[in-house]
Amino acid sequence: MNLVIDIGNNSAKYFLFSGEQLVLHTRRPNSSFEILEEWGKEYCIERVIVSSVINIEESARSCIQALGCPVVWFSSRTATPLSIGYRTPETLGSDRLAAAAGAWNEAPGRNLLVIDCGSAITIDFVDKNGCYRGGNIAPGIKMRLKALHDYTSRLPLIEKEGEVPAIGHDTETAIRSGVIRGICHEIEGYITEFKEKYGDVFVFLTGGDEISLNNSIKSRIFADKFLVAKGLNRILLEQDNE
Question: What is the model's pTM?
């Protein structure tokens, strides 16, 4: 089996694949690696790929290497199905590139717009020739809610869960609707812009935050919350061909 480890800003996600089939997944704090010992004893792990948006401490590296199988530390230098048109590939987030690779694996030969809604919202573009061209980064839902609280004197810090009316009827719903509906309009604007510019664009939506897009937009989107993991697994499988 292949083990995919995706370490984010707030948590680490673990995935077991048999070939291209996702078998098991879990989420843990990104400072906790006890699951590796559990899975190492229970499953036959043949190879590992690790993607991280934070610096990996030596203790964590030791836990991963203790599995006793080949490990790919994923970065922009790792071979992928895509060519890189980004001007500073060394600064490119591994999660962004992995999501793009996952989208390309699902829809090769098409213009792709990959939208990842997590701690940050990323909008990335892959052209039909398989070139990762780049993208944009914006604050995610929680970051926007916290910023409104931190940079004002009276606005409260509210949770993202709750009522999201078209027009806020109190301060709480005004903030939540402003943030969440604003993000939806932002994403819908990107989709419209890219389709007008490139014609046939296949849109992927992934990430931990669920958003309610306009139904006419949503019907033209392929949603897959495991897109990053699938991309990393595909990259790991392709290392055999290098």
Answer: 0.89
